[in-house]
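agent> call fold_tool(seq_1)
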Amino acid sequence: MDDEITFDDWFNSLSMVKVWALLVSVVTVLSALATAGFWFGQKFSENQSAMQITSLQTQVQLLEANYQSASSSLEQWRGAYKNLENEMTQRNGQISQLSSQLSRQNNCVFIQSQIRLNKNRMDSIDNSFSFVGDGPYGQRLRQERNELNQENARYQEQLGRCGG
């Protein structure tokens, strides 16, 4: 059992050149392993970065597509709003015109009604002349009839503008 060689025996049996050669070999192997680890780590990091760049580029493309879609939708909405605004302006003009026509028609109906009322009153006055005579009451009835006649003339003038 004494035939076994221990590390100390083996190390003591080495010459100084062999120790230096062994140390250089160990340092070289460790340096190679460290360099390989660094290189693989760098490649892994580059691959991760490339994947992140690809992912970010995809997200940018999606955002650009969404932006284009939103811009297109916005332009469509603007066009629709402009059309609606134009239509509302036209409708407001039509409503204003119809209101004006209705107002004139209502005014014409009022004028025609006033003319009829005045004519009925004048007919009533004319029928009263046979009973009243030429006294002060008769003069007052004539004056009232003349006023009604003048009022009807003004109404007739306004009635002439009802059609326009």
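agent> call fold_tool(seq_2)
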Amino acid sequence: AVSADEAVSLKLILSGDGNVKSLPDLSIEFPATFEVYDPKVKDNINHSGNQLQASKELEYVIIPRIPGEYTIKPVSISYFSPSLKKYKTLSTPEYHLSVGRSDKVAAKSNNAYFSSKSEVKLLGKDIHFIKEEGLNLHPIGHRPYQDSWFWAALILPALFFVGAYGYRHHMEKMSTNVEYARRRKAFKQASQRLKGAHQFLKQNKFAEFYGEVSRGLIGFVADKTNQSAAGLMRDDVELLLKHHNVPEGLIIEYLKYLDEADFRRFAPGQIAANEAHTFYKDAEQILVKLGKYL
């Protein structure tokens, strides 16, 4: 049990194998009467052989303001287990906190609340009353705020500042958040693979062409979902797409082109150049459609 206006520390520790910087942000639902400060985050990374062992500590400072019995709901986080080939969810237990009355003395006066004597002020001294007599008012001529340049000069610097801040924030996330960087670069990486496939198509190297298209299709999904493309099988890809709520029809269409690329890659026989060119265009459209859901 704690008293109202007394600081409380809540620490969460996530540990395991892998890159903790790619973990999603935790969503903790605190009671509305709690004053919560931004968490202190500490990442611990340990390279042991071929494994990357890491942990992330998040420490919240909480100040309950009103006495009562409170519950902090469980905090959950989901992750994909390559060994089980499915998503798993971990959750904390519920936390119960009993808040008693504060020892601080509160002063009430005329429907106003003051937390300390220093906040009590005489309104007659710190606010002047409106002067009603003896005013000399004169009409003015042209008003600057009626011109478009006035609003442009007022708004453009703000827009520039917002844009510069957004770009800086984007670049910082690109350099520190692996998941964010992979998702943003996914389409560019896949497009580069398709361009490489197109070069094989021009040289009538159809096996290499279909192989590069297949790697582009799988790599796009891997980057968008922050998974390793190496060893990612057809069933794994299908499971990832379903988990991200991709429409069933689009999943079937994507898998059809993925299967055809693998079949054409290894199947003997003649392949028409015009069929390969049509397949190339269709693969581009599949990536555009998937990008709307991933």
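agent> summarizing second result for user.
The domain at 2-100 is CATH 2.60.40.740 (Immunoglobulin-like). The longest strand covers residues 51-64.
agent> awaiting next instruction.
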